[in-house]
Q: What sequence folds into this?
């Protein structure tokens, strides 16, 4: 059976977010990869008798999206920190497209940070590239799998699960965590995400 | 503001599924398109004061995925019926990839139909193409937006919401509806979905 | 193992809702009872080795609420139709409490019908009695189990799953179905639900 | 309008769980109370024109359960810590009922701790009293509102959201947190929850 494989990320010292938090967070990511493979394996096993095991197969088929998206979300999250903070060039087509849809890059970023910091519950604040419409979209994903947009590429994702920030910031430091994660971004990688999706 | 636009589908007379059901079902699809635009518009309006309206903005940002995916899911569902039933050629790379992952096309199709007919609740039985792994995946989507796989293309989606079949089959005819939807498929379009995603 | 048992309901001929729809709907109810017992049984079986089976046990423990609430919701839905339509007496403490919280019974009923007919997606429009606060609350439940209010009694529940109305009304007849279900209610039974919960 | 009111809890020094975590956790609880009132208030405001505002009203009616259950879950969680750890008497009818349904109290507790520590994602491990069947049930609640059992009383609830333990234990200390929360319980209060619900 084909396997999903956990990636490695070369993450420098970060503003606000401790090395210990990143270390623990990476273990959680590896858990999603492991469990994506685990469901595939269990699925194969129970599928030997698909009628007798239909209830359990149904639940595994329903839950796979939690593990799979937990894997993919984190790959976007961690890779955007690689190489240390780098700004988005004014000449970037990605920056221009943001400005087209939201008046200006700064206005968009301000609204995006408010969404990340104030949407109730845990989940992800996400900037998407919609391949079909060739446009950007922003929306919220609950948990890992509730609210992914079909066939859209996640260009930027801010993890608002509490394991991302509670050890460093306490729950009441949520807003500062959002500021710091954004400050730590390598926008050249985010632009690369956009380029690949829009090619 | 950029608008999403409802597509038209050229759907022939179908086995089992009445023209009336398709007519009503298309109205529901158009509702998803309308409400995707509606949320974008409301979002713009409330965003004039993002701090005072943060709660409502958060809920709209959470709910957008329901309308958006309701639109996309149905586009895959209806387009696969266009042109009338056509088989998948044995020489098709898509058919070969299915056989690689699930022993044979028939074994896969049998398991897929069981998933569609027996998974509890309403939603979608989906065959995906995972762009990152260059592989096919099958899983269940609850409602429209709970369980979409990130950046995966929906190659085939069987709508298991009750509006798809209850007027023609009654709830107890669920299994026959799955058989008939599959029998009505134009596999050349499904193969085209695969080609576009894997290009 | 203790078993859940499907109840019988003595439902007269109804306005708008056909006997066939009730017959099929009761089969779905019986499916929830059967699957509530089924999960308990599977849970017992996999629990023989709770560590090795922890993933499947976790999913069964998560999904139980779907089956259980599917059972309970329908018991409130069907029992409110028993004995045929009877109005709520003006002297009823239940009617007075509604008027306290929502200005008047008619204003509440109007808003409740709008919630039932216009909330997007499938689920339940519910009037609850909150035992702790000794007050009534109205809210929406998605599917069967997403949004139940803890330790609150369901006094009235309008099933907005499509099996409730699509065969008789088509999807576009949703609003008329809500009117008809309300017109079919025996309010003495609903008042009885309130009395039991508030005793 | 009637208001929900945040309760105070008299929580002693705990094993493993720091005073800082409890302090921050109580602020989150107060946020649920505040937002339960906030939704009621917004609902009243938008209800001045229920047709024009039907989309937003629908979303508020859907989301209320998140805030409401966030409030109720935490009231069960914190109150069970009041007065410091006290065991469950062997003569207790509650203990006997557990033993009836799960062979022995210890076997039940062991399985319950495994469910709390291994169920994927965030949420609550819950022991319920089912008023209708006069029996105990154990199940999982996702987030705050996904999986509550209708009209069942929460007798015991272990908060598995990460704000409960990540600052003190790191994500990898999840299992120890479950052990410690259980060790901190005042079972006389839990028994009292059972008595009230079963009276």
A:
């Amino acid at each position: 059976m084909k396997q999903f494989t956990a990636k490695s990320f070369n993450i420098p010292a970060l503003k606000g977010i401790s090395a210990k938090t990143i270390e623990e967070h990476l273990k959680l990511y590896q858990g999603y990869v492991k469990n994506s493979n685990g469901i595939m394996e269990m699925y194969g096993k129970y599928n030997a008798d698909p009628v007798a095991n239909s209830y359990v197969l149904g639940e595994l088929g329903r839950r796979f999206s939690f593990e799979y998206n937990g894997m993919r979300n984190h790959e976007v999250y961690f890779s955007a920190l690689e190489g240390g903070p780098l700004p988005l060039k004014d000449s970037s087509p990605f920056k221009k497209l943001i400005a087209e849809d939201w008046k200006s890059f700064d206005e968009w970023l301000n609204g995006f940070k408010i969404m990340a910091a104030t949407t109730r519950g845990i989940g992800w604040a996400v900037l998407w590239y919609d391949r079909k419409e060739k446009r950007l979209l922003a929306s919220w994903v609950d948990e890992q799998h509730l609210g992914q947009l079909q066939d859209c590429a996640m260009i930027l994702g801010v993890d608002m699960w509490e394991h991302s920030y509670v050890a460093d910031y306490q729950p009441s430091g949520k807003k500062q965590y959002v500021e710091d994660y954004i400050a730590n971004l390598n926008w050249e990688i985010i632009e690369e995400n956009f380029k690949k999706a829009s090619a």
